[in-house]
Amino acid sequence: MTKKTPHACCVFLSLFLVLVLVSTGAALIGVDDTGHKKTVVAPDMEKDPGLFFLLGEESEAQGDSESMLNYFKRALDLDPGSDYLHTRIAAILARNRKIADAIVMAKNAVTLNPKSSEAYTILGKIYTVTGDSNKAIEAYNRALDLKPDDRDLYIFLGSLQASHRLLKESEKTFSLMIERFPDEKEGYFYLGKVYIEDEQYDKAIEIFKSLLERRGESASQAHVELGGIYVIQKQFPKAEEHYRQALTLDPFNLAARLNLAQVLASQKKFGESYQTLEELSKLAPSNLGIQIKMALLLAEQKQFDKARELFDKILQSKPGWDQVRFHLGRVLREQGKPEEAEREFVQIQKGQPSFVNSRIVLTLMFLNIKDFTKALKYINEAIDEEPRDADIYHIKGSILEELYRYNESIIEYKKALEIAPDNVKLMYSLGNSFEKSGMRSFSLSTMEKILEDKPDDPSAMNFIGYTLAIMGKDIDRAEKLVRKALEIKPDDGYIADSLAWVLFKAGKVDEAFKYLEKASQKVKNDPIIAEHLGDVLVARNRPDEARQAYQRSLSINPYNVLVQEKLRKLGTPESLPKQ
Q1: Domain residue limits at 562
Q2: What distance in Å separates the CA atoms of residue 99 and residue 90, rounded to the nearest whole number?
Q3: Could you tell me if residue 538 is inside a domain?
Q4: CB 264 within 8 A of CB 272
């Protein structure tokens, strides 16, 4: 059977006559050469695949896909060697999500006709849906070899390659498309986007500028693409210029207007950005996403009342929009209204996309005001909803540390490390908790593991060196480690303090004093650094300055009994001003 289908009217008349003949079993009356009547028996239409093909086409026109499939299958029973029927049936099966059967039909089609570009195209589409990208790319390549003038095939193949980061292959596909269709702009746009994805920004700029030279309807979109490249490169004035030119050419280009608003905000031109969003909102009044951006922009400018009013207005039309309520809660938190913020956040229910983030924000908000009971309540709700998020356990561990519940914080950090075993920040937190709980050997082994994986980690080197110095062990190694850490982070006052303490333990008092002076300048309100400075000043026989250092330490942490005792031993004179 052929691929050609009759005109719709002819199909309808043919079907009508065929159905009459088939249903009545009537014979046709004709006239012979002598003018006498002659009876002609109708052919057996039930054995004609063309009949069922026509019936299938008619069913398709009427939107009856089930009947269409049945008719095509009956046609195929009568004409099993038709690659065209196999291809059509494969397409119908694929549309009805009968993927396995569709693949069988399409494979049969290419077996029957290895030069069927349509069958390979269907296979490519099916494999794309199933996620078998290698087979999809192979099928599209075969189809394109057979039909190199099919624009859609270049797009199917190139886009699939790009989506799987096969950027060089995608670049080649779209370059071939341009070579085949040099006067059509679509290929240039696709190739430009591939260059952007591959971070070949100069080539992308060249492509889109070449489209500007051609002018026409695509110029506005070319300006938008160029603006996007300059945003990536953080060249915001150039991006702004291109978005404005896009709007000059096409005032109704919503993407250009939205991107212009964002790039203006990036340049702190908040007034112009807000005005641009207002104009955009008038063009698309039903787009609440634009109004959300307007409210966020107001919040960025600390115009919290106006932002709140706009969020409230959006929630009146869509009260269940959890993301808007999340933004509203954040605005109230920024206003310093934790109770009102909490009322908004708790309306976000489990299962909603913003639930976990709302609980994390609540946790941090109450942690900031030292309401540890609520902080723990909300972090536990986040864990119940998302038990495989290492960061949430990390937050809970830090809350427990603040409460001096070190054994419990260790448990939480260990849970987090089960999920993210290579997370250095987690390992460092665990090591600190071991140290604070008195399990110094465990803290050292944890930090040694970090150093084993990351030999140049300054935090681990500093921790190990300082801890060894406190324990009075391997002072030479401790000094080497902390010196190396300070080389990596020369402006870190805490590392300077660690080196001073290691040197002090090694008997190098004068050098220790030099580094403690540096640490005190970098970190002015740390009680430990002030205490260390007092100890070194005592060793240098400078008791008056030592008293001042100890008093500074106590002014920051008045409950440190060890420092109180050191001060008493010095016999603080009455005239010494308290700090």
Answers
A1: 524-579
A2: 9
A3: yes
A4: yes
Residue range 152-188, pLDDT digits in tens: 999 999 999 999 999 999 999 999 999 999 988 999 9
Does 125 map to a domain?
no
**Is residue 40 pLDDT above 50, yes or no?**
no
Residue 59 DSSP one-character state: H
| Helical H segments across 79-132, by residue range | 83-95, 99-112, 117-130
What's the predicted TM-score (pTM) here? Answer: 0.68
pLDDT at 95: 87
Is the per-residue pLDDT at 36 higher than 60?
no
Residue 40 pairs with which residues in a beta bridge? 28
Is pLDDT of 189 > 80? Answer: yes
561 lies in some domain: yes
Other C-beta atoms closer than 10 Å to the C-beta of 442 total 16
Interacting residues of 311 by C-beta distance below 8 A, sequence separation 6+: 292, 295, 324, 325, 327, 328, 331
CA distance 137 to 224: 30
Q: What angle do CA 11, 13, 16 make, to 5 degrees?
A: 105
| The total number of structural domains that make up the chain | 1
* The pLDDT of residue 12 is above 50: no
266 located within any domain:
no
What the block records as the tokens of 364 is 């941090």
98 burial via Cβ count (<10 Å: 0-12, 13-18, 19+): middle
* Residue of 474, 468, 496 whose CA lies nearest to 483: 496
Separation CA 401–CA 465 (nearest Å): 23
User: How far is Cα 297 from Cα 254, in angstroms, rounded to an integer?
Assistant: 18
Phi/psi for 422 (5° steps) reads: -100, 10
Task: Identify the residue with better confidence: 573 or 376.
Answer: 376
Helix (H, G, I), strand (E, B) or coil at 83: helix
452 Cβ neighbours under 8 A, 6+ residues apart: none
